[in-house]
Amino acid sequence: MIGFETHQNALDSLKTRGRYRILAPCTGYDFASNDYLELARSKILRDAAITAIERGVGLGAGASRLLRGNDPEHEALESEAATFFGAPKALFFGGGFVANTAIFSTLPRQGDLILYDALIHASAHDGMRLGRAQTIAFKHNDASHAESLITNWKNQGGTGRIWLAFETLYSMDGDRAPIADFVALAQRHDAVLVADEAHATGVFGVQGRGFMSAYEGQADIVTLHTCGKALGVSGALVCAAEPLIDTLINKARSFIFATAPAPLSAALVRTSLQALRQDPCPSDALSKQISHAHQEAQKKCGLTILQSQIIPVIISDDKHTMAIAQNMQARGFDIRGIRPPTVPRGTARLRISITLNTSTTQISDMFSALAEELESRPNV
To answer: 27 with 329: CB under 8 angstroms?
Structure first.
């Protein structure tokens, strides 16, 4: 009989270190999701789903896009998304992870350099491992360090194209990239910017177009807009110049060999984008929630330098982090603990997400409860 002792031993080690993960139900007030605009369970998307089904939109694609899985809903979404974001062309993927994997494994070529922020998404790392370009990390949000690495690379004989990769808003720290500095750096070195807008799309920029909206459309910019966060559905849109999109269609394995996203999902993302277009200030209500949360976080918990809807509370110790998260959940506030390797060692944290799923009163109550938990020793 086959045994899996090595797997079980590894799992036991995770439990000992406080890093064992389980699938937990959604309970209590939402301070954990990325459903920033409260669209995921909204009437607007429910009605859109019913209408789409009634007009015959498919619940599944049945094949990859290059076989029989290409649907008019996919193409309509890509056309509308390119117009909305101001990009030359867009391509719809089943999710942000596979989209990032496709970008980094396919677009940079052998002899090129991918210069990436040290805190970039895991999906980018997986894509880089599959690709052939050289990869170097620069210090988080440090354009000067990035430039020094470019200079060193060129001095050592590097002659390929440079791809400068970063997130516009970081999912675990909630801080923003110095976009203007990166744009200027790319221009000085004829580099291509690869900007992940996952947590900015729908929340920041004119009509929720993200932080890159002032630059998007230029030939040297690739952006990723995920559809499963503020847009409330699933999937991801890569926006880029036509030759790059066509390269993904022809060479990206995670596009070519994957069953296409459900046409119904494409139809619902179209509805989310339409909702953003029709509302001149789609995230005004969320902005007020975020401002209130920042005030409460500083007043009650001493948290400062907060920049977005994502509020990290650094605990450091893995077990303490999970104990506080569990205590908060028991008090009715769904807050999750984040541990390595998702974040660097020694920076285990609570990740508090502010969405329209909670009221200002619930936000205030949550920070009052959190202050009590932080003051007392967690149950470990």
So the answer is: yes
